[in-house]
Design the sequence.
């Protein structure tokens, strides 16, 4: 197990970092200035949607609409997940102009697991790993051309991944 | 400091495939510790991937994303040698970022 509390290493690192910062402060500032990137920001995080218990409420919070079934969404997930703590799920779609992909597990304590923003130029293809409390339907939702579409698959869970 | 982020971005034709692993406990808030007390939720909320000053992918994660999260996606326009910046922030305000080169 790696953890964050390697105190001696961190202390030494802090000293080194301090020295380096003092020595190349000018360069450091110049470099920072050249990064016009915005870092990840929690204000983008839709807290309410992640607390919803139902698919419909989560989707309404996220996108303000409901989804209709589509056969143009490919949801890959195992039939049986032996370990609910790590269930690999991937979503791809042949729908045009996809702007968002969301993954929900209907019988988890909170249904929404992950929501992805897909800007123009990024393909509607996402893979990730999620936790499942018990056997449940997994739902993939894709926003395409301003409309919501969904596909679902039942995944059997042998050992739950949410504790209790 | 060793980064919490590992990223591999490979350009193939006009698409770049990005795979990323982030070291994070992703505590769900539903698990009890050995004393029977709930471990509070501690999870990444937002991950962004930027290329050429443009965000190419944003992940919004809840506590049901697995520990040490993995994500894979593809975007167009990346070239070998280009920089890809990954950054994350969690619900306790902790954050990290990394700039990787596309291979």
Sequence:
């Amino acid at each position: 197990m790696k953890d964050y509390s390697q105190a001696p290493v961190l202390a030494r690192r802090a000293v080194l970092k301090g020295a380096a910062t003092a020595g190349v402060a000018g360069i450091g500032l110049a470099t920072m200035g050249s990064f016009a990137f915005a870092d990840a920001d929690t204000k983008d995080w839709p807290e309410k949607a992640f607390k919803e218990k139902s698919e419909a409420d989560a989707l309404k919070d996220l996108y303000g609409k409901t989804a209709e079934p589509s056969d143009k969404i490919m949801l890959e997930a195992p039939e049986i997940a032996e370990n609910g703590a790590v269930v690999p799920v991937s979503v791809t779609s042949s729908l045009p102009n996809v702007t968002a992909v969301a993954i929900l597990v209907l019988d988890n304590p909170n249904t929404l697991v992950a929501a992805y923003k897909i800007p123009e130029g990024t393909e509607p293809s996402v893979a990730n790993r999620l936790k499942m409390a018990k056997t449940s339907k997994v739902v993939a939702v894709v926003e395409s051309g301003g409309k919501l579409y969904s596909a679902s698959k039942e995944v059997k869970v042998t050992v739950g991944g949410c504790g209790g | 400091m060793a980064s919490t982020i590992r990223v591999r971005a490979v350009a193939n034709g006009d698409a770049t495939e990005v795979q990323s692993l982030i070291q994070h406990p992703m505590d769900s808030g539903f698990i009890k510790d050995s004393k029977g007390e709930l471990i509070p939720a501690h999870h990444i909320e937002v991950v962004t991937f930027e290329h050429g000053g443009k965000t190419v992918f944003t992940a919004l994660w809840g506590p049901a994303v697995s520990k040490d999260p993995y994500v894979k996606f593809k975007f167009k326009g990346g070239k070998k040698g280009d920089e890809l910046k990954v950054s994350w922030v969690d619900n306790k305000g902790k954050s990290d970022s990394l700039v990787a080169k596309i291979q």
Notes: Strands of chain B lie at 5-12, 15-22, 44-51, 54-61, 70-76, 83-90, 95-101. Residues 5-101 of chain B form a domain with the Immunoglobulin-like fold (CATH 2.60.40.10). Chain B is about 0% helix and 50% strand. The CA atoms of residues 42 and 92 of chain B lie 7 Å apart.
